[in-house]
């Protein structure tokens, strides 16, 4: 039985990590001080120089080894093993342990108090300025 070696296309790994981080080619290009076209060329390259790979890794917030050893299968395995609930809809169904309306009312009361303090500060300023004008 013959085993095929996995393709170690560094450019594709860079592209995939960039996408997973929610970064556009333009943003990565700006971080690296190169053009978007240069980033596209790098992502289409099977190999990347070590120095350039270090720069790219830093810009992506990962290590050089992280890029070299990146595997989408590993990412999917981590996600699959982390979410143990078979009902994925329940995973995203957020149930707060507090009453959102109470929090909204608290925020409203705080805003009201802040407004009253700001209004009082403005009244104090006007009063002070009137006193200054009356002295002249």
UniProtKB/TrEMBL annotation:
InterPro entries: Cro/C1-type_HTH, Lambda_DNA-bd_dom_sf. SMART domains: HTH_XRE. SUPFAM superfamilies: lambda repressor-like DNA-binding domains. Transmembrane segments: none annotated. PROSITE patterns: HTH_CROC1. It comes from the Bacteria. Residues 14-67 form the HTH cro/C1-type domain. Gene3D superfamilies: lambda repressor-like DNA-binding domains. This is Helix-turn-helix transcriptional regulator. It comes from Flagellimonas halotolerans.
């Amino acid at each position: 039985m013959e085993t095929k070696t996995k393709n170690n296309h560094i450019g594709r790994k860079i592209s995939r990590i960039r996408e997973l981080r929610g970064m556009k080619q333009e943003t990565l290009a700006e971080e690296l001080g190169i053009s978007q076209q240069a980033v596209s060329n790098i992502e289409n390259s099977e190999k990347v120089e070590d120095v350039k790979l270090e720069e790219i890794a830093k810009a992506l917030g990962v290590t050089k080894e992280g890029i070299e050893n990146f595997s989408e299968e590993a990412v999917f395995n981590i996600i699959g093993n982390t979410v143990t609930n078979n009902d994925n809809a329940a995973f995203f169904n957020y149930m707060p342990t507090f009453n959102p309306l109470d929090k909204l009312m608290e925020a409203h009361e705080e805003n009201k108090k802040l407004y009253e303090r700001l209004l009082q500060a403005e009244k104090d300023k006007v009063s002070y300025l009137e006193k200054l004008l009356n002295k002249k």
